[in-house]
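Slide 14.
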Amino acid sequence: ACAEHRVVDLYLRPWLSKKLLEFLGEEEDTLVSFILDKLRARCHPREILEELEQVLDEDAEPFVAKLWRLLIYNIELRRQNIGSAAS
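Slide 15: predicted structure.
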């Protein structure tokens, strides 16, 4: 879980900050932290989507889909790098 938390902080925080700024037109540190907390707690994407629909409307679904792809990609990449470093 520690590696996953590192992925969340290192890779997703900057992406979230940038994307939410694009969607909302202003910095949303509180919303970024809220989403990161949901990810760390391993909330289901549907739960995150339902929360974000209130803020992002029709943009919420593609936003959560991209977020999930980025999360999975970075976790898998990190696992492969750790696995290849061990051999």
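Speaker note: The mean pLDDT is 88.
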